[in-house]
Amino acid sequence: MHKKGFMVLGLALCVLLGGCSSGNTQKESKETQSEARTEKKTEKETELASETNTEIGAEKHGETETEINSEKHTETERETGAAGQTEAETVSQEDTEVSDLSDGLFGVFETKTLDGEKVDQNIFAQADLNMVNIWGTFCGPCINEMPELGELAEEYAEKGVRLIGIISDVREPGNEAAEKIIETTGADYTHLVMSQSLKVNYLDQVQAVPTTIFLDREGKQVGEVCVGAQSKKNWSKLIDEMLEEVAK
Is residue 149 a contact partner of residue 240, using CB atoms and an 8 Å limit? Predict the structure, then answer.
């Protein structure tokens, strides 16, 4: 019995010690698991924080790009507006230049040369004195004086005189009859075809051809209107007088 008592006591102690040992192990295991969960939680929080920072950074980057694009768009609009304003001012200046001769004898007009080139009242600003000869393809006296008019146009070109023909009965460029007369007579100076604005502004007042008018650079009349054909000598004398007049 004594031995059995010791055995029971030893067994109890082993159980007690084993239980204590098992309890400590379980406790350590629980602490380890808790630490692991804490580390995982920390890792998740770190990942969430990283994702949040990335999203915030992306949003800020997007906002920054939007602001930059907005500023560039605004700057582009300003530059476009300035360019549009400059272009409008240029057009306005060009319109002013075109209308500078609006007070001239022929006013503001548009027409074409017999070769098809577009011209307006600014053609008169290209010479100190313009000798405008209005003629018709049906007019004998007109055609008869044209060879000498061609010679005068060449001789007085360096003196600031320009001779311009206006064909009263031709409305379209390339008229064969007019081209043949000019080629035959050698009157190869500029010839304008009739247009509505020329007709209304002045040519309705012309009663006969040939009619010759002298104009200065501003398209204003110089001297008297000459109706009828003249000799080269008479035209030369008259041109000299008109040059003296515009030089004053």
Answer: no
Residue 106 near residue 198, CB atoms below 8 Å: yes
pTM to 2 decimal places: 0.61
Smallest Cα–Cα separation from 172: which of 193, 198, 190? 193
Each residue of 6-20: b (16+ CB within 10 Å) or e? eeeeeeeeeeeeeee
Query: Residue 205: which residues within 8 A CB-CB, separation 6 or more?
Result: none
Question: Rounded to the nearest 5 degrees, what angle is found at the Cα of 36, between the Cα atoms of 31 and 39?
Answer: 125
Query: By the 8 A CB rule, do 177 and 143 touch?
Result: no
For residue 53, give the amino acid letter.
N
3-state SS class at 205: helix
- Identify the CA nearest to 149 among candidates 85, 236, 71, 70: 236
Which domains occur in the chain, in start order?
A: 1-101 (no CATH), 110-247 (3.40.30.10)
Strands 129-135, 161-167: pairing is: parallel
Q: Give the C-alpha separation, 142 to 61, whole Å.
A: 83
> pLDDT tens digit string along 8-28?
444 444 434 444 443 443 444
**Which amino acid is residue 222, in one-letter code?**
V
Contacts 24+ apart (CB under 8 A), 148-152: 148/231, 148/232, 148/235, 149/187, 149/189, 149/235, 150/185, 150/186, 150/187, 150/188, 150/189, 151/186, 151/232, 152/232, 152/235, 152/236, 152/239
pLDDT in tens, 123-133: 999 999 999 99
